Amino acid sequence: MTQPAESSPQPGRQRNRSRTRPAIAAPAFLRREIPTYELLQPDGLARLHAQAEEILAEIGVEFRGDDEALELWRRAGARVEGVRVRFEKGHVEEVIRKSTPKTFTQHARDPKHSVEIGGNAVVFAPAYGSPFVYDRDNGRRYGSLEDFRNFVKMAWMSPWLHHSGGTVCEPVDIPVNKRHLDMVYAHMKHSAKPFMGSVTAPERAEDSIEMCRILFGADFVDQNCVILGNINTNSPLIFDGVMSKALRTYAAANQAAVVVPFILGGAMGPVTTAGAIAQAHAEAMVGVALTQLQRPGAPVIYGNFLSSMSLRSGAPTFGMPEPALAYLAIGQLAQWLGVPLRCGGALTASKVADAQAAQESADSLWPALMGGANFILHAAGWLEGGLVMGYEKFALDCDHLGMMHKLLGGLNLDANQMAMDAFREVEPGKHFLGCAHTMANYQTAFYDADLADNDSFEQWRDAGSRPADLRADARWKALLKSHSDPALAPALDEALLDFMNRKKQSMADAWY
To answer: Per the record, where are the segments of Polar residues compositional bias (predicted)?
Structure first.
């Protein structure tokens, strides 16, 4: 493995006054110290699971274009008819419980940034999959490799993101069949946090894993998780061959597939929330179980992306009450199964970082946290229903994630926090502003938001009357300006570049 990365400098505050700020000491990942919210009583939880079992027994799931997956299910005792697979009640649950890890570590090339996934651990990762990007200076445009690298660099610089993510935006200036190489390399070169690989074809998944074998060593990769693959079902109730083969590629290499039903209620699933939850549970269970048939004990994450839609326009909606209830219920189902959970994060349909984006993002992230999600994808940058990765939105979301770090850390009740010394020093009717206890704790007592403006109106006006997105504009630019690549051994860098060049030279450009 490479040498540990040097610590990164923290970019300066973009505020209208200067002051000394202590260095941020953010953890590699979070430990939840507050309880999750239990929406359902045991009988309600059992009813949802029973509905999922009934769907799998009566309707089943199709595996299109993957004969090996069908054969794995046939050998496991499922009923296979053509591409349709039906399951006896309890069969899929049994496969999951037999060998699925409850927690696992995803190793980073700098061990200080390795993360635990599952249990009470919480990992934040940037948004994923947007073909467009947006910033105030250049507007909405197709993403490029430069944009991709920018978001990787900003995720590396942010103390509140634990993970580099995967397809943080689509670099459409690179051929489709080659861009995965540049994307994985960018994660390896410009960051030392954990990352995700390609899933758009099984051979691209294999390339992603092979690059990890170069970086970490083949033996290490065979025994440890170093990369994730985000696998979407083709809801309702279909795994297409591209996704199931990519899933099996990751599992066979002992790497973690993140199995995610993608359901918009009323389109890819029932319009009723309970029915959509049961469908999502059924699809996720089948994907998780398939990883265990491919390689028992392979790490895997039970995922969920369930949202509502406007029944007037057909457009997806976010931050609504129905998906919030679904996240809470799905969180309980994942905990009951004993598997790590992935949910979406700061989701919005807004086109820019405005009040709608703030409300919808907060109301999407909150139920994911309270539902017990362990891996939160789309935690920063998401705009326009996932079509756009926003620079200003990324900065604002990261600031919000810092607040969530403090919240999930729970309430500390040690002697210093109980503040008896302050009560002894400050007489009744006096203030605590200058007492010794306040002076000893003022730098860390409260979360100090980078982008919130708490000045008086006159101070705000005299500093230029800057709204939140303009303050965020300065913040993301400061992040990029402060970035420096974490150390990567030259021999490993050369080996990665050589692998990429040989792969690219072996194929003609394909743009679709």
So the answer is: 1-13
Question: What φ, ψ does residue 123 adopt, rounded to 5°?
Answer: -125, 130
pLDDT in tens, 266-312: 999 999 999 999 999 999 999 999 999 999 999 999 999 999 998 88
Evaluate the omega torsion of the peptide bond into residue 236 and state whether it is cis, within 30 degrees of 0.
yes
Question: How far from the centroid of its chain's Cα atoms is residue 237's Cα?
Answer: 23
Which domain covers residue 58, as residue numbers? 42-96
Euclidean distance between the first and the last CA atom of the chain, given in angstroms as a whole number: 35
Main-chain dihedrals φ then ψ at residue 468, nearest 5 degrees: -60, -40
400's enclosing H/E stretch is helix 391-408
In this structure, the answer to whether residues 147 and 237 fall within a common structural domain is yes
Q: Three-state DSSP class for 252?
A: helix
Number of domains composing the chain: 3
Strand partners, 84: 62, 81
- Any bridge partners for residue 382, and if so which? 389
Confirm whether pTM is higher than 0.85.
yes
Burial 398-435 (b: 16+ CB within 10 A, else e): bbbbbebbebbeeeeeeeeeebeebeeebeeeeeeeeb
Of 235, 368, 324, 285, residue with least CA distance to 49? 285
Q: Are strands 316-317 and 341-344 parallel, antiparallel or unpaired?
A: unpaired
Confidence bin at 512 (pLDDT 50/70/90): confident
Query: Where among 408, 423, 457 does a domain terminate?
Result: 408
Contacts of 434 (CB under 8 A, 6+ apart): none
Our measurement of the distance from residue 335's CA atom to the centroid of its chain's CA atoms, rounded to an integer in Å, reads 18
User: Half-sphere exposure of 288 toward its Cβ, with a 13 Å CA cutoff?
Assistant: 33
According to DSSP, the residues that pair with 376 across neighbouring strands are: 124, 343
- Nearest by Cα to 14 from 505, 475, 495: 475
Nearest CA to 305 out of 291, 287, 289 is that of: 287
- Which residues, other chains included, contact 452 with Cβ-Cβ below 8 Å and sequence gap of 6+? 399, 468
Residue 507 resides in a domain:
no
Distance CA 214, CA 2 (A): 11
Spatial distance between the Cα atoms of 456 and 19, rounded to a whole number of angstroms: 17
Helix (H, G, I), strand (E, B) or coil at 15: coil
Q: Residue 271 to residues 268, 274, 309: CA-CA distances in angstroms?
A: 9, 9, 9
Here the CATH number for the domain that contains residue 381 is 3.20.20.480
